[in-house]
Amino acid sequence: MSVSIFDSFLSLFFPNRCIACNRPLKQHEKYLCDSCLYDLPKTHFVSPTDNIIVKSFMGRVPVRFAYSFLHYTKHSAVQKILFNIKYFGAADFAVFMGEIFGQHLKNISFSDNFDYLLPVPLHPKKKKIRGYNQAEEIARGLSNILKIPVLTNAVTRTVFTQTQTHLSADERWQNVKGIFKIIRPNHLKNKHIIIIDDVLTTGATIESLSQTLLSRLKVTISILTLATAKGI
Ligand SMILES: [Zn+2]
C-alpha cells in the first residue's frame, strides 16, 4: 500500500482535501469529492443471497446474507480509503463510509430480522495502539442508517496476529484459526448476527470467527464488508 502513503499523509494534514484524489473539497463535500463519491466502484451484486461472496463461503460457513459494497484493487481510490480508515486515525471517516454503505443497503432493500452487527474484533493491544477498531467504526456508520445495534463486548481476539497481506490463503487460515473467544454467549445465542469487516480477501478471519460462534452457539450468520478483493 506504499503508493498511497504520501497522499494519505497529506490528507491527514490537509483534511479539506479529497481522500481519494487529493483535490480541495468544496464546502458541501466531506472526506470525498462528489466526483470520487460518484465513481466509487460499487460491486452491484444483484442479490445478497446469491453472489460471489456467499459462494466463497460455501462449505466453510453457512451464510444467510453476504454483501460487499466496493471492489478493492491495488492503486485505487478504494485502497486509499481503506488505508486512511486503518492507519491514519480516521475513525470518523470509517463511520462516514459505513453510513454511505448503509444508505446503499437501504436502497437495495437489504433487510431481515437482524439482531446485531458484530464487528470483527481487533486484539485489545492492537486496538489500544490504533485507538479504535476500524470494523467497529464502519459498523457504527451502518448502525446509524440501518438501526441495528452494534455488539462490541461479546467476542474477543486472543492472539495478536501480524499483518496477513503477504501470506497465502492456507497460511492465513493457519494464522487466524482459533484466535477468537466468546466472552458473553448469552448476547449471541439464537441471534441473527451480521459480521462486519473492512475488506474481504480470503475470508479466513471471518471464517474463523464464524466457526468459533457456531461451535458453541446456535446463531444465524450474515456478512457485510465495506470492500472485497473478490470478483475482479
Ligand atoms: Zn476526489
Could you describe the 3D structure shown?
The protein has 232 residues and is α/β, with parallel strands linked by helices. The chain has a single domain, classed as Rossmann fold. Helix content is 40%, strand content 16%. The chain has ten helices and six strands, in the order αααβααβααβαβαβαβ. The chain has helices spanning 5-13, 34-38, 52-56, 77-87, 91-107, 124-130, 134-146, 169-176, 185-188, 204-216; strands spanning 63-71, 116-119, 155-157, 180-182, 192-200, 220-228. It has a four-stranded parallel beta sheet with strand order 1-6-5-2, with helices on one face. It has a two-stranded antiparallel ribbon with strand order 3-4. β5, α10 and β6 (220-228) form a beta-alpha-beta unit. The longest helix has 17 residues, at 91-107. The radius of gyration is 17 Å and the shape is globular. The mean pLDDT is 90. The protein binds zinc ion. Residues 18, 20-21, 23, 32-33, 35-36 line the site of zinc ion.
Keywords:
alpha/beta; Rossmann fold; 40% helix; 16% strand; binds zinc ion
Low-confidence stretches: none
CATH architecture call:
3-Layer(aba) Sandwich
Sheet with the most strands, sense and barrel status: 4 strands, parallel
Number of domains: 1
Give the N-to-C terminal Cα separation: 18 Å
The helix tally amounts to: 10
**Percent strand:** 15-25%
The fold-level CATH name is Rossmann fold
Mean pLDDT: 90
Order of helices and strands: HHHEHHEHHEHEHEHE
Q: What small molecules accompany the polymer chains?
A: zinc ion
Alpha-carbon Rg, integer: 17 Å
- Biggest sheet, spatial arrangement of strands: 1-6-5-2
Class computed from helices, strands and strand pairing: alpha/beta
Number of strands: 6
Share in helix: 25-40%
| CATH top level assignment | Alpha Beta
Shape estimate: globular
